[in-house]
Amino acid sequence: MFLINLVLLLLFGRSNVFAKRIPISQQFRDFIHAWLGVVAIAECVILLVADLSALRFDMYRLKSISSIAGLVASISLAVLGVFSLPFIRRHVFELFLSTHLALTVVVILATILYLAPLDFSQPSNILLIVAGSLHIILIAIRIGIPLWNRDHIRVFEENELLKADNTLPELQRLHSGPFKSQPQIQYEKSLLTENYDNYILFASGIGIIAHLGYVEALIERLQKNRDESGIKKISLFWEINEFEPWKYGVVELGALLEKDDDRCKKLTSGPKYTENKHVFRYSMFNIHPLTNMINEDSIGGRQHWRKQPMNVADILQKELKIEKTLVSVCANLAITDTIRNAQGVKKQNFVLHTYGFYPEDVSRYELLTIP
User: Fold this and answer.
1) Which is deepest, 54, 164, 251, 258, by most CB within 10 Å?
2) pLDDT digit string (tens) for 82-141?
3) Where is the chain membrane-spanning (predicted)?
4) Residue-range domains of the chain with CATH
5) Is the pTM for the entire model greater than 0.90?
């Protein structure tokens, strides 16, 4: 009975190292789970009757080991059976097996305490010792496997891209709380070695991370040089397909706007101060058809939210009016190819910089030319 219960639990119970390596369909598992509780109740009844029949009561005390073991097993199985009736599920079967295994240990202890000397020639004693040993092995496996399958996160570089390998064992309980992530990317130093009058940055999805540090470095350069670096305009255009996953980027862009605003406030006492010395602005385009975001201009016209796709050709036509322009792109292939096409056809006077990463490669763009 012990071995039958053990096999059923390992194959059809909760996911474990044995069940993963045996090709059993999920439909068959669900079918077995529906009947495991019924099997547990039936076993309770059968074992209860068998144990009660083995009892030999004395007027004052229980003398035989079979009577003691039978009484303990009967009480335990009766309690287990009664409380299992409302919960005919596979977890009932697991509880039943655990109780069955625990009773095995109780019987072994009772045998050692009440039999003197312990006769190892008796088949019943040998079976009890074997069952107890299997119980100890099973407990060791259940404790050892979770300790062995610890979660492991490994970050490595492959083909000039950072990749993460996250290995997690199957958990019965998982708790998470609020946390803040601060992703960083090292932009190319060559982008900061030359000064440009106009910076146009394109991004889609997670590609925004490539530009955040770059914009911050440009604003810090302006602040350090007291606006003598020649930077006239920094424009960032970002396309997303949903708003919720990219709240982090919106918060960071807001922080960059505040950084630019603080820089301007420090110039109020300078001889070259004018009313508007802000250089950074950004536009966010949400292409999700069911988005609740509305078209909005805020923070003095430096933050633009649009519920529409990003028209790359139109943006380039409007923004390429300042000479010595750098266009940096960390977007999907469609946006990148559109900008390359514009540079090749019109021979526009701008320097194009692209990253070897193309997030969210969608197929809704067509190659556009600037009229």
Assistant:
1) 54
2) 554 544 444 555 566 566 666 666 666 665 665 555 566 666 666 666 666 666 666 666
3) 35-55, 67-89, 95-115, 127-148, 199-219
4) 2-148 (no CATH), 190-266+275-354 (3.40.50.80)
5) no
CA 240, CA 286: separation in Å to the nearest integer?
5
21 vs 215 pLDDT, higher one:
215
Report which of residues 249 and 13 the model is more confident about. Answer: 249
Q: In angstroms, rounded to a whole number, what is the distance separating the alpha carbons of residues 49 and 192?
A: 85
Structure tokens, 336: 């990148």
**Does a cis peptide bond (omega within 30 degrees of 0) precede residue 245?**
no
CB 335 within 8 A of CB 365: yes
Instruction: Please answer whether residues 250 and 282 qualify as being in contact, where contact means their C-beta atoms are separated by less than 8 angstroms.
Output: no
Residue 343 tokens, joined: 């540079």
The values of phi and psi at residue 123, to 5°, are: -60, -35
In a 13 Å sphere around the CA of 362, the CA atoms on its Cβ side amount to: 14
7's CB contacts (< 8 A; 6+ apart) are none
User: What are the pLDDT digits (tens) for 148-176?
Assistant: 555 555 555 555 455 555 555 554 454 55
Distance CA 338, CA 370 (A): 10
Neighbours of 322 (CB within 10 A): 15
